[in-house]
Amino acid sequence: MHAGEAPPGPLLLNCSSAYQGYVHVPLESALRAALDSRNGLLTELHAQGTDCYRLFHGSQEGAAGLTIDRYGPQLLVQSFHQTLDHDALLDLHATIEQVLGLELLLVYNDRSQGNSRIDRRDPAYQASEAALADLIGHEWGLNYRVRGRHAGQDPLLFLDLRNARGWVKQNSAGKRVLNLFAYTCGVGLSAAAGGAREVCNLDFADGNLAVGRENAALNPELPSMEFIQSDYFPAIRQLAGLPVSQRRGHKLPPYPRLEPRQFDLVFLDPPAWAKSAFGTVDLLRDYQSLLKPALLSTAEDGVLVCCNNLAKVSLDDWRTQVLRCAEKNGRPVREWQVLAPAADFPSMDNQPPLKTLILHL
Ligand SMILES: C[S@@+](CC[C@H](N)C(=O)[O-])C[C@H]1O[C@@H](n2cnc3c(N)ncnc32)[C@H](O)[C@@H]1O
């Protein structure tokens, strides 16, 4: 447990003394301060067609393990360390509705138990049917599927990537775009909205790509996108023209066959860690094996945007590794830029967990 964090157990967050037994900023005032600090940002976001954003980023704003997000008509509260007291939940909902001047449908997902799976048992926390319905949120003028609870554990749109999707929308005109680890295809959708010539979304999870297809259907004015359901390793190696190698003694499961192909803009946003029959995604120990084939699938004069969301990896160390890997693989970086999440993801030490590098090759 980190210093200043509360011990686990129920009833630990309530509005009068956020953490029992700890001297701490009360949740109510921490929340009001967070809402105050977002005044200008929210006006800006609403003007640009965005109603999905973080209202309270607990780890940096006074209640570690608590996040409060608006997803269009829905208010999504998530706790990761301990269960939020029922009255505290209702109080924060009321405060937010009053400050924002709108009604929001409340969904509370307690992810503090059992390996961060959502606790759906306690009826006190069951959301209304309307709140759990299929809803629509907006970002950069695009429509996105919002679903408070679904088969997976994370919300269908990662909000800290908003600035990166905005960048993609601004920089995709006429480009062939490859969206790797596409999840619900927000990056692909942004590229299509930005006038990309081709958009290809790649992910191994059919359910995530299905939401990507829903997102496409929610924006019928956009050109159609391609969806490839495949493990990253065989797919990217084939696109890069590299052999798909088998580990000694292990027969590979079947995988879709792809022709070598290059893209003008490649977006690489992998999970922190994932193991499959084809390889291991490990952002701490081995970013290179993800990066190398992605570099080789990026066209001459193309751009590779890559992310690392692991808090314990520093931007400086990771950037050094990335630039060295590009050099070593004959794709030296001509120019690079860092893209930070927006101010709804404040970071006291200026080291946000999600790091994004734009590499001009
Ligand atoms: C952190 S999310 C990526 C977020 C996404 N880039 C976005 O824009 O929201 C991780 C995604 O990687 C996919 N994934 C994990 N391991 C994979 C693998 N080996 N091959 C293909 N997809 C994988 C998961 O299905 C999930 O959709």
Structure explained in plain terms:
- The chain is an alpha/beta fold and 361 residues long.
- The protein has two domains: 104 residues, RNA methyltransferase domain (HRMD) like (Transcription Regulator spoIIAA, 2-Layer Sandwich); 202 residues, Vaccinia Virus protein VP39 (Rossmann fold, 3-Layer(aba) Sandwich), CATH 3.40.50.
- 29% of the residues lie in helices and 24% in strands.
- It is built from eleven helices and 15 strands.
- It has a seven-stranded mixed beta sheet, with helices on both faces.
- β2 and β3 form a beta hairpin.
- α1 runs parallel beside α4.
- The protein is globular and about 60 Å long.
- The N terminus is likely disordered.
- S-adenosylmethionine (SAM) binds next to α7 and β11.
- The site of S-adenosylmethionine has 17 residues, from α7 and β11.
- One of its GO terms (biological process) is rRNA processing.
- This is Class I SAM-dependent rRNA methyltransferase.
- InterPro entries: SAM-dep_methyl-trfase, SAM-dependent_MTases_sf.
- Keywords: Methyltransferase, rRNA processing, S-adenosyl-L-methionine, Transferase.
- GO terms for molecular function: methyltransferase activity.
Number of helices: 11
Overall form = globular
Strand content: 15-25%
How far apart lie the N and C ends?
Answer: 42 Å
The structural class is alpha/beta
The largest pleated sheet is described as:
7 strands, mixed
Helix-strand string: HHEHEEHEHEEHEHEHEHEEEHEHEE
Bound molecules: S-adenosylmethionine
Rg over C-alpha atoms, rounded to the nearest angstrom: 21 Å
Helix content: 25-40%
The CATH C-level class name of the largest domain:
Alpha Beta
The number of distinct structural domains comes to 2
Poorly predicted parts: 1-23
Query: Could you give the count of β-strands?
Result: 15
- Relevant CATH superfamily of the largest domain: Vaccinia Virus protein VP39
From the coordinates shown, what is the CATH architecture of the largest domain? Answer: 3-Layer(aba) Sandwich
Mean pLDDT: 91
Domain S-adenosylmethionine-dependent methyltransferase: 54-358
Protein name: Class I SAM-dependent rRNA methyltransferase
Pfam families: Methyltrans_SAM (PF10672)
Organism: Pseudomonas laurentiana
